[in-house]
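Field notebook, page 748. I keep forgetting to write these up properly, so this time I am using the form the group agreed on. The chain and the ligand, fe (iii) ion, are recorded exactly as supplied. Prediction of the bound pose follows.
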Amino acid sequence: MKRLKVHVKGAVQGVGFRPFVYRLAEELKLKGFVINDTKGVQIEVEGDMKSLELFLLKLSSEKPPLARIHFVDFQFLEPLGYEDFQIRESSELGEREVFVLPDMATCEDCLRELFDPSDRRYLYPFINCTNCGPRFTIVERLPYDRPNTTMKGFTMCSKCLKEYEDPKDRRFHAQPNACPRCGPWLSLYSSRGEILAEKDRALELAVEILKSGGILALKGIGGFHLMCDATSEAVVSLLRERKRRREKPFAVMFSSLEEILFYAEPSNLERALLLSPERPIVLLKAKGGLAPSVAPGLKRIGAFLPYSPLHHLILRSVGRPMVATSGNLSEEPIAYKDHEALERLSELADYILLHNREIKRRCDDSVVKVVGGFALPIRRSRGYAPMFITLPSELKRKVLAVGGMLKNTFALGFKDRVLLSQHVGDVENLGTLKAFEEMVLDLMELYSFEPEVVVCDMHPRYETTRWARNFSEERDLPLLEIQHHFAHTLSCMAEHGLEGEVLGIAWDGTGYGEDGTLWGGEFLMCSYKDYRRLFYFSPFKLIGGEKAVKEPRRVALSLLFELFGEEALNLDLPTLKAFDFKELHNLYRAWKSGVNSPQTSSVGRLFDGVASLLDIKQVISYEGQASMMLEDLYDPWVGDHYPFELEASRINWKPIILSLKEEKDKRRAVSRFINTLAQVCLRVAKEMGVERVCLSGGVMQNDPLISKIRELLESEGFRVYVHQKVPANDGGISLGQAVFGGLWEQYL
Ligand code: ZN
Ligand code: ZN
Ligand code: FE
């Protein structure tokens, strides 16, 4: 007889791990106990050596589906003579190291019960079990136990309590466990804040509203959605008007995969992503059939499947696809509190469907795109956050990395892992900065996290940089400001566990460079310690600064001025026709004098310039729009490319634009342009002779571009790494920042 003491670390709480251990112990006739603690799960079992070894083996191999084990520590000791096997109450002592799991989509078992008229939870919008349901968005503090969640106010009825306490039940210690008798319920409000109906009646009316062309604000898992019929142009364009969102595509929720197949053509990988428990929005090739205003000018739609019982009930009852976009005004953070919805969403929605299970923290829907056969996260949030990224080696200190500005996330780094926050949004105004601060302080508190160093971007005008300066000063912490494209590359290195030196190709819209100009077409030799800027695209001027970011025609004009000087004004091109005569002359003067016209090497802007020269888009209404439209025009049968030149450390784009300007066929022009960029990568990679190449930055979300770069470089023996865990866009830079801050040695 021996006693086996085991400590399991990882995502092992709230996933049915203790009942699993209980069943395993019973099966092997072992005595002892299992308990959650702040570091994971502790187990002691007594029995003969053979059974104990088997126990250890099965612990990892038969673990519950949602559990993720990161570390198993065990030792064999003398037996104490336990008489039975017990599940003990949680202890709250010690440093918190437990990980909260993300919110998971309704499982198959719960779904079956939801639509089974004989089940006591028939049509109950809050059904869940240990294999599914909310977690991250309901936990108030650790450990994850019912009194520490927003379910604390609901006292379980005898039937629910019996399930909750029965180790053999699927709902054993399912913290949000509830039923129509004892759990939360729905209530429907008018936009003026009057209560119209409750419970089943509220749901019936909500369905009626959607069927008859109304706009409904609906409280979901991590915030509010605005919903309306995705097949009705009238209501979708009305929603655009109210939300003040001109063209940025809306996501569409479908009742089932079968329904999606009527409107889009998902590949096998895309189907798997749609059905995964994380239930992200997946960008799919559209077949048509939805209202044109859902995704104006694009050939892809963002599709997803219901992930909460409430979504399932609504989608099935309405019987057609629904726009499901985050409940906010454009540029604002998503609303997640009842009072926020009643105040802020009343102008956007006709009715508001609330429920009385509080959302503790906001968590937007995630977005994934399949690029060159891999799933690339575009927005990593619900279903993924707050799962951490494991690093190849330990960080030297605890680090808070605040990210950038657009599509922001922040990160907490410690030991060998980085916990990336949920999507924060564009931190560019007071509202979003407030939300950002609230979210940073919330996660730090949840994990009792005290940073030893703070890392931010070098951009002096990012709100997050300003915030980091204040915060580090208040707490007397060292602050590191790191270059944007270096952070991009580091995040790609970190998620692949690469060490040593790599060639980082970091292309995006803009990032602040060491020389005060705006970078964005960079080839960097990177290690975790440092980087060198090897090559970059010849800089050109952004006439009017920020304005040029929204107007591809300004970028194209600047490229033409670089090529032809004032003569450019006499050219017969769509770009020039997009301005009036007076504007053109003013812009030329601005370009010549350089007033408010910063230099940039950005490839994202080159894409914009091309979009204008080919008259695909002259003015954009959301970031990345021009690049997305060019992507749709790419023709894989066009194999050739334009000439380009490498001059010292610069890539001269002039020959590219000169040839492109003469091209008559848009598709051929776009395809050759993208092929040329891939050829540039190959030339530089050969020049440097480094085997490993990391692709990062917002431009590296472009499917044909990434596919072409990989095809070219891999056929020449290079190893190409693309993002698969964190976004290539600025939503991923906090990971790179965290790794840099955690490993840096010199500042002490
Ligand atoms: Zn379930
Ligand atoms: Zn109940
Ligand atoms: Fe960037």
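OBSERVATIONS:
- The chain has a mean pLDDT of 94.
- The CA atoms of residues 407 and 425 lie 5 Å apart.
FOLLOW-UP: compare against the apo run.
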